[in-house]
Amino acid sequence: MPHRLFAEHLRLSAAAVALLSGMAALPSERAIAQTATELPPLPVDAETSTDYRTQSTTTLDGEALATRRAFVSDTAAVLGTIPGVDSATGSGVSGLPTVRGLGDDRNRVLIDGMPLTSACPNHMNPATSYIDPTRIGSIDVVAGITPVSQGGDSIGSTIAVKSVSPVFAAPNEGLHTEGSLSSFYRSNARTLSGAVSGTVATEDVSLGYTGSGVRARNYQDGNGNRIGVSQYAALNHAATLAARSDGTLVTLQGGQQFIPYEGYPNQRMDLLWNRSHFLNSSLNKAFGWGTLDVRLYWQEVDHFMNFLPEKSATGNMPMYTAGRDLGYSVKGEIPLSATDLLRVGHELHSATLNDWWPAAGGMMGPNTFININDGSRDVLGTYAEWQRSWNPQWTTLFGLRNDTVLMNAGAVQGYNTSATYAANAAAFNARDHHTTDINVDVTGLVRFEPGPDATYEAGLARKTRSPNLYERYAWSTGDMASSMVTWFGDGNGYIGDVNLKPETAYTASLSGNWHDAAQDDWGIKATPYITYVRDYIDVDKIKDYTGNASRAGFSQYRFANHDALLYGIDLGGRKQLAVSPSYGRFDLTGALGWVQGERLNTGDSLYHLMPINAKIGLDQKIGRWSNGIDARLVGRSTDVSTLRHEPVTPEYAVFDLRSSYDIEVIRFDVGITNLFDTQYYQPLGGVDYIGFRQNGSRLPYGPLAAPGRSFNAGVTVRF
């Protein structure tokens, strides 16, 4: 059935793709910028952002993105080269980014300025799943100390994913057209993907289209074992209309996504339908007093979960979710003097959610189970930020932000009037569900640049995040119902608490960046940090599941506030090794991340923390050839959450090879991931739930095995 749905949608899309393929395009790629740039100049420009770039800001674009597109289909996986950034395994296109030990909703993720909400009790449709890697123009990751103008309602990082900018005709060029077609293949899981993009433009108006599709079968691990229900498919379409004139840029985007199926070997459920539509408009205008940015956006999602046949050949448990995001943002940048810049802004993000499970027979009936009814989460944010350059050496940034979070949900009901369902529903419905959180963020940063070869930065921040709708309103203590609410890939079940308090994080960070004056030969950056989180949303254990083999060994938890402490260090470096007319340029890059976190009242490790890990790359470039060897070295995950039965994963080393040849009209990419077919287990990959089920629900269960060796190839044709 999923394959037929995919084929049907592909046929419906073929006409549109055929019309646009002749003029499709990938705009020319910019050079990679993986270290913080100099402070942006104060003069304003309708097409240039002057956002403050902290020493922990990393930008991926150009060659870095072009290389990653050939090897991944998940935008969250693209971030894996950045120090301190990892991805918790969801499925093929739905990984959950984690930054310095803080994951998922604790990070603010923006897709072309839109903060999108996971409309699923398993978070199978996170924000990064709504943009294919082939459509990305750049990604900015602001880790740790985040300026208030770039983040709110989060205690972690800000991840800003931006699609390719509109292309306009050059002066006196007339009508400009450009296009590209891409195709990629990966042998493991027999993954086949393709993309098409096109632009027609004058000097003042641009119309562009991008489309992409991917289909993958079940992957094999390093031992050659097939990992069941890991297959997936996705289709994306987006169109952009832009116009510019005299310091004004107006952009209107619209598109849709269709995921007909996405298997989850580490979850009880699978995704069998996810369709979304979005509109996103923006205005950037320069005035005599500064610049004004205005954005208005909307997205709706229809989501359906059930079992793929391999997970449950006879089982049937339909689960539907409908979500909507609607909001706006208004931002002004006002140069107060030659050395002072003021940023002020106001934002609204309104998210609504309905989550219901139709009767499925037996104990799951005769009623529809209502998990969340008319759930709403409205965030109203206002901020002011002052940036001052005291002299060429010293720069400061201070910001204050308020986010008012209004949440509510309606009455619920169980499948039937049995004692557990009736008591839980009655208790929940008798309560007042409306909550109002008044959250305040404060950020202070000081930067010192004593000369052209070093930069130092120190920062303090107070950041807040209110619970998501499931953390507050998932209500049933029934074994089956609670085990359907989990986005951790752990097989456990979770219950919400209306009385949860917002998380408040206090972070201190230092950063040193040393490099040659030209920033071309070598560079080293070190960033130690510490974060104390008051009312961190963790869990309290209610009971161990009993009476059902599929839940044996797993437990039920209630979300609860506990204080927590996280600390660690990110290291990054690069060195030019050699330059030769015969062999080209050789560069060595490296990154190391180490984070520790514990719940202060028990000393138990926080859940889903990456052990010490390093990423090392050797790059060679000569003419149009680019080649590289990458190594991922990960230590044993000894610090795990015993409370939540987090499995220990052994240390591993995985090596990848990549090569590309790029001429004006065509680019070839080839490579091998997991060169030595290493059997390894990602620390954030969750448990092997499908193996547990296929083994007759016999204990013990272990971590989910990662993919084995894959031979990869891709080609992009521009015209």
Automatic annotation (TrEMBL):
Every copy of the TonB-dependent receptor plug domain together lies at 54-157
Cellular component per GO, a single term: cell outer membrane
In the record, biological process GO terms are:
siderophore transmembrane transport
| Organism field | Magnetospirillum fulvum MGU-K5
- Motif TonB C-terminal box, chain ranges: 702-719
In this chain the TonB-dependent receptor-like beta-barrel domain maps to: 222-675
Q: In terms of domain of life, where is this protein from?
A: Bacteria
Put simply, this protein is called TonB-dependent receptor
Task: Name the membrane topology term.
Answer: Multi-pass membrane protein
Q: Which UniProt keywords apply?
A: Cell outer membrane, Membrane, Receptor, Signal, TonB box, Transmembrane, Transmembrane beta strand, Transport
Supply one GO molecular-function term.
Answer: siderophore uptake transmembrane transporter activity
In the record, the note on similarity to other proteins reads: Belongs to the TonB-dependent receptor family.
- Matching Gene3D superfamilies, A to Z? TonB-dependent receptor, beta-barrel domain (2.40.170.20), TonB-dependent receptor, plug domain (2.170.130.10)
Which is one Pfam family of this protein?
A: TonB_dep_Rec_b-barrel
The record, for PROSITE patterns, names: TONB_DEPENDENT_REC_2 (PS01156), TONB_DEPENDENT_REC_3 (PS52016)
